[in-house]
Amino acid sequence: MKRNAVALAVLGLFTGLASAQSSVTLYGVVDVAVERVKGATSITRMVSGQQQGSRWGVRGTEDLGGGLKAVFVLESGINAQSGTLGQGGRAFGRQSFVGLGGGWGTVRLGRQYSPMDDIAGIVGTKTYDVLSVVPIIGNGDYNRVDSAITYVSPTVANTVFQLQHSLGDGRASTDPSKDFAKQVSAHALYANGPLTAGVSIMQVTDADGVLAGKQGKDAVLLAGAYDFGAFKLSAYYDAEDKAAKKLKVYGLAAAFRFGETTVSVGAAQAKDVNGSAAAASDDAKIYTLQASHNLSKRTAVYGHLTAVSNDAAAALGFNSPVAGSNSNGIQFGLRHRF
Q1: 3-state secondary structure 142-208
Q2: Which of 79, 153, 323, 324 could form an SS bridge with 161, CB 3.0 to 4.6 Å?
């Protein structure tokens, strides 16, 4: 009886939402994989969200008349292997924003993806993808940002422009790190037939939050992909402040389609991973092999393999990788969308 009452209450909630909005959609992804990773040690474990982040969410629009509409998204991350909340236990840690849109574009307020994360998405941001293995700022600490004001333009000459400003951590003006997490970022994303390409820039006012004053970071990311039909070729380049030097990563990937199966291979070079001015080499090479097979429009099985070759002072990879040692991971998983 109690379980039925809860189900009816949830159903009533979404029925009420649907009647109050022009449209409301409940959606989600459940994605779980078993992996074997080698870093400081080797370990076999079950992990969530490896092809797509496990989540559930509600999104909706309301027609306000005169070409104006209200939009909202509430999206919660899930650790599907354990049933716990993702993003550090936040209720809606993936996205939570409200906005107004029209022919002039859309303005959104709340927790949102950064413009740079959108550009990284052209070449992939899964756990085993290069731009996740290498800790670039646009797919790491600032792939989503709190207290963000975002403007998304209408499509102009097959290009969408996005500008975002985050108000940061909301610290008092007397705080020694009052500008922590404040950032300004933008992108231009071009999509026309088989070609998708984009560029994004980001400036973080204070990326530290502990040391007094401003420890700023600048970053730029370029990415592009061309779909030839039977296969798709992707390329990317990222450069950003790290320490004395700039971290740089660049690479190529090719994806081949065989009916409902896609197989992709990639190689990348990371330079000055630590940004150290010392003579010790902190470069790394990353190689990827991935495959995915669609069982239906909603369900797929997949496998990922990523190998990292670290130089003497680089420590990229999985499971607390050790500087100068190789790291790798292999996983097989199942993903379902609803």
Answers
A1: CCEEEEEEEEECCCECCEEEEEEEECCCCCCCCCCCCCECCEEEEEEEEEECCEEEEEEEEEECECC
A2: 153
